[in-house]
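Quick one, probably user error.
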């Protein structure tokens, strides 16, 4: 959660494709603004850029992503 109370949630995508067809697990990040129940998708990848996101944190104008495989990525917000 950032200082404004917005929450960022990171997670993996395409689990069925991974289990049944060996495709990479993708990543997505959602932002839930403070006082809202509406989630806004702010990042999506099919696994070619970043695999299996499990955590997302806002830092200044960036979103930091991490995965269980100890991978780390910084995305600059537009």
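Nope, works fine. Designed sequence:
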């Amino acid at each position: 959660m950032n200082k404004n109370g917005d929450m960022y949630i990171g997670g993996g995508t395409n689990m069925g494709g991974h289990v049944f067809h060996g495709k990479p697990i993708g990543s997505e990040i959602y932002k839930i603004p403070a006082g809202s129940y509406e989630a806004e998708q702010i990042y999506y990848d099919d696994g070619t850029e970043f695999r299996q996101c499990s955590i997302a944190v806002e830092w200044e104008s960036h979103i930091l992503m991490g995965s269980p495989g100890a991978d780390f990525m910084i995305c600059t917000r537009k």
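The chain has a mean pLDDT of 82.
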